[in-house]
Please model this.
Amino acid sequence: MIPSTLILGGGDLASGVAYRLYKARLPFLIVELPMPTMVRRLVSFAEAVYTGVHTVEGLTARRVESPPHVEETLARGEIPVLVDPALERLRAWEWLGAGRLSILVDARLTKRPPAYPLTVADLVVGLGPGFVVGENCHAVVETNRGHFLGRVYWEGSAEADTGLPEAVLNRQAERVLRAPADGLLTQRVPLGAPVTSGQTLADVDGHPVPAPFDGVLRGMMHTGLRVTRGLKIGDVDPRGDPRYARTISEKALAIGGGVLEALLTAFPISWTI
Model:
């Protein structure tokens, strides 16, 4: 089985897309970086790049290295994850172009226009800012929270990036943990663990990263990653429920629903009862 759908990115929002497509029984391949920088690792299929195998809400992703490995993984009902950020391996396997790739979902959230041409697939769906219908995608899914979250646009573009995280229990910018210096990141507290205000959650070359308030450590980049001062490296959830660190967010599921709508609009399925 060769999947005709490619998802670029395996972070938490991309994993919401993958979850929706998997539940709809649409086979796909996730493509990631050699060292992904996602924060919400427990709910990111990209974690399989580091661990080989990673399970999110009962769905298992597995790192793959070759076409037979992709097919074996799909046959087991698992999600294949390939390290191929420049799509060089997929081109060598002749999976791009020549009618081999029907759908490309760009879920990397880079907020920049992509480098590949619109002709890379029959349907290109982009998530959030950076995508303009007719220029670098065929459809855009809104990623900003609010009334239009998850909507599919067949013309124009998504709303501009606000630069602000979602407010949770009146905590907004302070929820985000940022690197206090340039250097190597070392995590000190497990993901999903309760934390108290001022507790050291990580350090960057010896510079501590304290908890801004009581809550749960919801996300943290991998230990050993080199980060730059001011970079988002983690987040704390003030609601204190560890389940929120281990389950796909409502935002990711809404965006995933939008992608599924775009796919079924472009490639309708005839239903019989």
